[in-house]
Amino acid sequence: GAVVSQHPSWVICKSGTSVKIECRSLDFQATTMFWYRQFPKQSLMLMATSNEGSKATYEQGVEKDKFLINHASLTLSTLTVTSAHPEDSSFYICSARDPVSSYEQYFGPGTRLTVT
Amino acid sequence: AQTVTQSQPEMSVQEAETVTLSCTYDTSENNYYLFWYKQPPSRQMILVIRQEAYKQQNATENRFSVNFQKAAKSFSLKISDSQLGDTAMYFCAFMKVDTDKLIFGTGTRLQVFP
């Protein structure tokens, strides 16, 4: 089956710094990728939809200047958390849309971000 | 706006028994997809089963089956012959046709006991 990877799996950064998270589709081309945020013991909340070659579409309430998304190729999308603060600490998960089925998404293993 | 509700925060079942997880949703759409995802302790989201709203027949995947009641907007998951590896968070999700947005419920934590 289709595989989506994320890097890093876990990152600690200091308050005020920026951190980049990568999401890769390993064996298929993904024109559309998605970024979710999951707080402890809570559900996944869609942050933004990342489209290759165009600007990301952000969900209501998500600061686009804080969470920069770049989808520069058909296999890579990146999420950069800028000027991170402790409240940005969370589990970030990406997914990629199956190009064949168009409704199925394959999820990455997630990245745990801790801001100190 | 669509919403997905999972009214059971936690469930438990003994190994080899059957358990049903509940999910209701609210939408004015007629064409949509429904999903059940499993999130084990590793946090990797795994698709368990999906249902197209236009299909009347309930989806089945081995030990997993759904009871899809479109009029009642209900989409429950039945796990038969529960196994220890079924221990996980289970999320019900909704997607409108022609959009890519998955809307997740709050999840049900399932514990399978030996």
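qc> Chain A has a mean pLDDT of 92.
qc> done
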